[in-house]
């Protein structure tokens, strides 16, 4: 026959008195039956202390009542009071050696004890998943009435970031023992990590009303108050334009609990926005990336990182982020405008930098442009570079194309505005070849090139200055 103590949850309706009384043959059988019925009822309503008190009293009155030892051993195992349980099993087996059911339960006790110890050890080493496997064996099979096993499971669930499951687990404990301080602490902590701070606060406050000096509850409660205070201060300073102060306060708030991702995602986003406003693109990219590592679908995170990448001139990255944000929120015209800016910047970055080719600044005067062109044209004229003629021809074409754009006020203005000058034809379009087709191109400069008006001696392909 299976002993009901193996699984109280499945055997609540079982009445212990069906077991034959293996002692009390001196006329006390009726009293023993009533005792075991009362013990059975106490266990059914989870009044384990009352059951143990009755069993202890019965053993004190009649040390030969062997079944009382067995039942006491079972209750103690349910409560994971394993050392006491082991003594009671062994006492029963001394009185009734060879009882297979009791021997099986004693074996299960050792399994339960091993599973509990293994779970604790794995918790300490950070292997939460494996630890949960072991503690489930304790809670669901061997010792379903063990509160400390249930509390360990709740801690493991929180460590595994399974906060909703931790709330359920601690809820079962509080239903049976509403003033359990550890359960209140852990349940509050689970709500805290879900960023449900009001509910977390209520759990901490209830625990502190029961024990105002409870160290962990005090730390959790005042830590949460400090976090909310820092967060509000950072947000207020950001909204008031006190950006540098807001940066420091956001960082300080994040540092209070780096593991509080459900709340810190908002702190990182606030920090990112402020850094973008300050023009600190590189730092802003880091903060926005923190947002997206927590919430990869954050439209604001993508948008702000796109803006930050524009500041760092990562045009392709900016387009990618802003396009993703726009796809998630196509009705947002601000994102669309930012995406258009990014695409334009990317396009501009991919065209040739005529100023760089001539080695001049964007504020250079027309006189500076002409001087730079003349100098480079002389330097790279193919007739002067017979040993590297192909490279010189390519350079010379590029220099001439740059001057075609920048030497013309109208074209230069359009180029500076970002218009597609290259598509207008002429030298900027890539079709200009001062050496091909035997055609003669004439460039006029005031005063000509230094050293004469006839161009280069012997000319080059009909090309004259």
TrEMBL record:
Presence of the UniProt keyword Endoplasmic reticulum in the record: yes
Domain of life according to the entry: Eukaryota
Keyword Repeat recorded: yes
Endpoints of the signal sequence: 1-24
Keyword tags: Endoplasmic reticulum, Repeat, Signal, TPR repeat
InterPro entries (UniProt xref): DnaJ_domain, DnaJ_domain_CS, J_dom_sf, TPR-like_helical_dom_sf, TPR_rpt
TPR repeats, residue ranges: 66-99, 181-214
Compartment(s) where it occurs, according to its Swiss-Prot or TrEMBL record: Endoplasmic reticulum lumen
Domain J stretches: 353-419
Alphabetized SMART domains for the sequence: DnaJ, TPR
Main location: endoplasmic reticulum
CDD domains cross-referenced by the UniProt entry: DnaJ
One Pfam family in the UniProt entry: TPR_8
One GO term describing the cellular component: endoplasmic reticulum lumen
Protein name according to UniProt: J domain-containing protein
């Amino acid at each position: 026959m299976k002993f009901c103590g193996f699984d109280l949850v499945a055997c609540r309706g079982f009445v212990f008195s069906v077991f034959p009384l293996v002692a009390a043959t001196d006329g006390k059988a009726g009293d023993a039956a009533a005792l075991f019925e009362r013990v059975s009822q106490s266990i059914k309503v989870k009044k384990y202390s009352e059951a143990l008190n009755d069993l202890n009293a019965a053993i004190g009155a009649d040390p030969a009542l062997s079944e009382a030892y067995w039942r006491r051993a079972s209750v103690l195992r349910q409560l994971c009071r394993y050392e006491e349980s082991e003594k009671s099993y062994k006492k029963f087996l001394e009185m009734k050696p060879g009882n297979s059911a009791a021997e099986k339960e004693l074996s299960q006790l050792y399994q339960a004890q091993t599973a509990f110890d293994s779970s604790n050890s794995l918790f300490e080493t950070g292997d939460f998943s494996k630890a949960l496997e072991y503690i489930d064996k304790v809670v669901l099979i061997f010792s379903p009435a063990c509160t400390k096993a249930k509390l360990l499971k709740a801690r493991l669930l929180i460590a595994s970031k399974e906060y909703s499951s931790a709330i359920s687990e601690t809820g079962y404990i509080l239903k049976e023992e509403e003033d359990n301080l550890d359960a209140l602490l852990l349940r509050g902590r689970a709500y805290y990590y879900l960023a449900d701070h009001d509910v977390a606060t209520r759990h901490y406050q209830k625990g502190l009303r029961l024990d105002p000096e409870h160290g962990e509850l005090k730390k959790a409660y005042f830590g949460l108050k400090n976090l909310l205070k820092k967060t509000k201060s950072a947000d207020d300073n950001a909204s008031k334009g006190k950006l540098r102060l807001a940066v420091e306060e956001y960082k300080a708030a994040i540092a209070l609990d780096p593991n509080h991702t459900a709340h810190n995602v908002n702190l990182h986003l606030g920090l990112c926005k402020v850094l973008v406003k300050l023009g600190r693109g590189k730092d802003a990219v880091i903060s926005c990336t923190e947002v997206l590592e927590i919430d990869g679908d954050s439209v604001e995170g993508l948008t702000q990182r796109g803006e930050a990448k524009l500041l760092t001139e990562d045009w392709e990255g900016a387009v990618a982020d802003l396009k993703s944000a726009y796809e998630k929120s196509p009705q947002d015209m601000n994102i669309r405008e930012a995406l258009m800016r990014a695409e334009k910047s990317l396009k501009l970055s991919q065209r040739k930098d005529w100023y760089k080719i001539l080695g001049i600044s964007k504020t250079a005067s027309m006189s500076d442009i002409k001087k730079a062109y003349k100098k480079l044209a002389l330097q790279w004229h193919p007739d002067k570079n017979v040993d590297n003629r192909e490279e010189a021809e390519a350079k010379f074409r590029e220099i001439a194309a740059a001057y075609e754009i920048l030497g013309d006020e109208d074209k230069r203005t359009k180029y500076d505005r970002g218009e597609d000058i290259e598509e207008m034809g002429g030298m900027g379009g890539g079709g200009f070849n001062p050496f091909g087709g035997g055609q003669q191109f004439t460039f006029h400069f005031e005063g000509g090139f230094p050293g004469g008006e006839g161009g280069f001696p012997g000319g080059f392909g009909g090309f004259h200055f």
